[in-house]
What we know:
The chain is α+β, with helices and mostly antiparallel strands.
Amino acid sequence: MSRTTAHTGSTRHTMRHRLRLVLAVLFFSALTFSAAGAQEAGSEETWNALKPDVFGERPIEAASPLVRLDAPTRAEDAAMVPISIEVALPEGDSRTVKKLTLIVDENPAPVAATFTFGGARHDVTLGTRLRVNSYSYVRAIAELSDGGLYMTERFVKASGGCSAPAMKDEENALKNIGQMKLRVVGPGKEGDATKANRFSQLQLMIRHPNYSGLQMDQVTRLYIPAKFVDSIEVKQGDELVFSMVGGISLSEDPAIRFSYEPSGKEIHVDAGDTDGRTFKGDLKPAG
């Protein structure tokens, strides 16, 4: 066989090999896309079954322009998925924002938290971190003062968030349990309540392992009993900013960032967990 013939045969073999690789990649990409699409469609079925348990037969406006939800398409850490929600009523709308419910369809306990707001709020901004146990829609449903429900959702690709091991061992986690960080944040406004303006937010973090009941002790290989922050109340003076009822879908060391109407009065936080512990924190005006 001549050198030219051998070279031609080798080139054809290489081309056939590359073609097979391309076809294999396209095939598996199609399977992955099809599986992801099936999971996304299946999540709507989950929501349709879940919705009556949470809201009964009340109508919900889907894809509402009144509610905006930001969440990653693919989470870097399924145990700490950052989300932010904004509810904004149009100018002249006399209604107010009363509640906000966060739901992760495919989680073992889908309702992550329900927030109830005080005062006459025409807009609310809120951010937190969630556990996402498998590919799932994350939903934010706002309830207005007239009882209307308005929803938006994002499909998040993540898995194992509810069973992921805690970042700290149980002894250290319980040693600092309940410690709070509370501060005012905003454009050029860092510190106490008197420095806040209309665009400021409060940032709250509570040290707590927020055990989901699905995590395993890496030493004993036994499941750690569920233990999580299930209630938070934030007041400005005597007026309610918000109260929260939470579940296992809130991440370890629950963190909440939220807008409020600053008055310069003391901010007080009361929180509690499923073991009956209570935690308190204050943010006092300067002077």
